[in-house]
Amino acid sequence: MKRKIVFIINSLKNGGPVNMLYTLIKHVDANKFDMYVIALSKCDPNNERNFNELSCKVVTLSDNENTMKQVNSLIEKINPDIVHSHGGRADLVNSRLKGNFKTVSTVHCDPDEDFAMKKGKIRGWMQATVFINTVKKIQCPIACSETVAKKIEHKRHLNIGYIRNGIDLNRLNINEEITRSELGIGTEDIVLSFCGYLSKRKNASYLINAIKKISRKDIFLLLIGDGKELEDLKKLAGNDSRIKFIGRVPSPIKYLRISDYFVSASLSEGLPLAVMEGMGCGLPAILSNIDSHFEMKKCCEEAVQIFDLEDYEKMIAILNNLERDENKSKAAQKVVFDYLNATRMAKEYENVYSED
Fold first, then answer.
1. What's the pTM value of the predicted model, to 2 decimals?
2. Are 193 and 278 in contact, with CB atoms under 8 Å apart?
3. Other CB atoms within 10 A of residue 44 CB
4. Long-range CB contacts (< 8 A, 24+ apart) of 238-244?
């Protein structure tokens, strides 16, 4: 007999947790599980991930009625075996539900780091404390990486398990193409790509400054994405033709395919899906010295190079000596196809769902 899973998420707005949930549902065995998604809020339809194409039923709550009342009513009708929440508000709802079902939460970030960057040190600490107290009320909290699990244990003395994120390998098989010449880049040039929301946490200004500092004219940086920092970053880049702002695109894959390396100077991450997608396209990764990036290197020593954010000259030296490396490219792709993929991730979650 199939088990029923209810997934709860704040909204279906495109972003890290939503994309991870979409990928998870796509790869969980629909012959073993009936799946339902409850979105607590509506979002702009132009920025909404379409879950209706998956093997699940989707309900978006009304903004005019009490959230808990609506969720409790749906839970009573569905009678699930598992309720799995993603994100602070969804976790809060999950922690307050009553019933004979298993509660699961995926913790997508280190709350102390993430909330402090968004809200400031004091408000961030308070919000992180509320979040941790909520997670403690959920039976089976699971971090998205070993890094996040260890940080929560160290800072908050809460021991939780982890299941590493993984990407949908089918996303790498899109038919769209773009040529380097369309971007004013030569076939022998070295192309670095960054993909993500352009926020202070992603620290794209570091990458721009590094490119502007080097004398090489054959190294280009593609910044794929938009965000609050976009206009400031464009001003910082100035007229440097080596820096290309691609903007927000439905899929970054065609740009990753014409690149040679994936690069990130991020200040904090859970376990970065964008890096995995880059590696899945055969791009060795050049990453800042944060714990989640060291975890990526732990997964594949050969394909990941770490630079110290405090040692700017070392980063300049890396760029000045950068060349294509076919062995690193093959190693990057292999670890994603063999391990850092959604099939493995979904099987590990299925094991959690099946445990009594």
1. 0.90
2. yes
3. 9
4. 238/212, 240/208, 240/211, 240/212, 241/184, 242/211, 242/217, 243/208, 243/211, 243/212, 244/183, 244/184, 244/185, 244/220
Q: Which two tokens stand for residue 317?
A: 């030296």
**pLDDT (tens digit per residue) in 239-291:** 999 999 999 998 899 999 999 999 999 999 988 999 999 999 999 999 999 99
DSSP conformational letter for 48 = B
Map tokens 């982890």 to a residue. 162
Q: Which domains occur in the chain, in start order?
A: 3-166+341-354 (3.40.50.2000), 170-338 (3.40.50.2000)
Residues belonging to the chain: 356
Contact 222, 252 (CB under 8 A): no
Cα 25 to chain centroid, rounded? 16
The predicted structure's pLDDT at residue 2: 93
Q: What values do phi and psi take at 223, rounded to 5?
A: -105, 105
User: Which residue(s) pair with 39 in the sheet?
Assistant: 9, 60
Q: What are phi and psi of 4, to 5 degrees?
A: -105, 130
